[in-house]
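Researcher: I need the complex structure. Ligand is tetrahydrodeoxyuridine. Inputs:
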Amino acid sequence: MTDRSPLPLEALQQHAQQAALRSHVPYSGREEGAVLLLSDGTWVPGVRVESATFSLLIPALLGALTIATASGRRDVVAAVQTRTMREDEALIIHQGLPVSFRRAAEGLALVTTSELPAVGNQLDPRLDDALTEMEEAGITLARRIAKRAHVPDSDFPVGCVLQTTSGDLLPGVNVEHPDWSRILCAERTAISMAITYGLIPERLYLTCLKDETGSPCGACRQILVEHAPTLPIHMDRGAAPAEHTIASDLLPGAFRGDALTAPSA
Ligand code: THU
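Model: Output:
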């Protein structure tokens, strides 16, 4: 008797390959995707997101890990990538989660146990909430989302809600990692989530829960200006939120990489 359902890792590979089509790779042309399998069989996609400032690259595995975290899920039992994981890429998972993983599927995967759950549905990160026209409603929601932040090093939770042109609401939180160069802020988590799910940013609500003067960092301004230069950003200022537009207010004269040569086909 043959079991015709694909092995969990094969099924995840296929999902990762589908996800890779959503990569943002204008500078290398190297599409890459990753998928995390959660303990109940839900799977989480991630894609490679390149920046005109090359070093701000978001690797596919890191994208998936931050999407899972912003959705309140860290119960990862397997990770796959469309390409053999380099050691440094595997460290995103090895160091980023408290359980131990071993390599499987000839370096394409990391697994916690040999008994993986059957592959179920893709994670739907969208929030159920409906936003009123009130600016305060978005900020209140961002404050609630900030509770999902993974902040063992800073104890400084940041939360955001990215409203998309389809009317969906995506959560973003900061996700810290022992290797600080791997830390993603809430804003970049939300932008990479929108890219991964093929959604277009329309409006952002942001809170640095413990700092009423908090504002997007330089790295996030760069990523925001590349993907959503006219995005209105509502920042938590206690009773009176402040609204800014990224390209005109927060990063005028930004480097857009317009003269960078596209990869040859
Ligand atoms: N952080 C954000 O998430 N967004 C910002 O705009 C500012 C900084 C996070 C990153 C890190 O986890 C912590 O706050 C301290 O920088």
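Model: Summary of the prediction. Residues 8-111 form a domain with the Cytidine Deaminase; domain 2 fold (CATH 3.40.140.10).
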